[in-house]
């Protein structure tokens, strides 16, 4: 009985829809607008049908919902794939640090001091930020050290071709003489009551002119001493700014500061006085050889022991020279 009632209700709804649609069709047909009606119905139907098809395609192509275990499995697979790709590039922690042997330029002692200086400079000023930006930064730093060492070697080769006698006797003496002459002219003008005018070079007229001159010097250094790969426009301009603004300009300002020069002179004098005092102290309390040995064994100051060793070696060399 219930099924019969449902069928009757649906049948009634269908006839009601037909009764509503027939007058509308008749109206459009009577006014020759039946095709417009059909076109509107088809347009609306295509719109809804297209949206439905897009939704079905999106649902069919979208990945299935992943649970926590499935997500962890996917992450593990991605990590394994990443490790597989980077297998040949990851630096092994167990590998010992390779020692880079540089060609001899000056002497072993001077070259060793320069290499230690390069190591400290790259460690304090380059390695701090390069480790966070680059992969395998140690290899990059070693390559940069080799390039800098090649530049030092090229500079040494160029300086070896200079006539040192002419450089010292003519060029340096003339520059120093001209410098003191300008100082004398300024002092004479100041003694006469006039404002002292110190004659400066063109590139020292202003801080901007000095910085431009240092940039040109840095650019020549890059072109003549460093490998050709550093002469490319972006790299050349970057190195030029670093050399001029962060290295040469602060270094020149520091070594031309009178207070800095005076402090270094006073520091040298204090070191010489301390060395002489330690030299005298070494023999003041050693009346015999046994006391001298006892003083060495009881001393815990490394600097004192170094000075004692230096004095002993010096006296042995002097005695050997006198004998021969």
TrEMBL record:
<keyword id="KW-0812">Transmembrane</keyword>
<feature type="transmembrane region" description="Helical">
    <location>
        <begin position="37"/>
        <end position="61"/>
    </location>
</feature>
<keyword id="KW-1133">Transmembrane helix</keyword>
<feature type="domain" description="PXA">
    <location>
        <begin position="107"/>
        <end position="273"/>
    </location>
</feature>
<dbReference type="GO" id="GO:0035091">
    <property type="term" value="F:phosphatidylinositol binding"/>
</dbReference>
<feature type="transmembrane region" description="Helical">
    <location>
        <begin position="12"/>
        <end position="31"/>
    </location>
</feature>
<protein>
    <submittedName>
        <fullName>Sorting nexin-25</fullName>
    </submittedName>
</protein>
<dbReference type="InterPro" id="IPR003114">
    <property type="entry name" value="Phox_assoc"/>
</dbReference>
<keyword id="KW-0472">Membrane</keyword>
<dbReference type="Pfam" id="PF02194">
    <property type="entry name" value="PXA"/>
</dbReference>
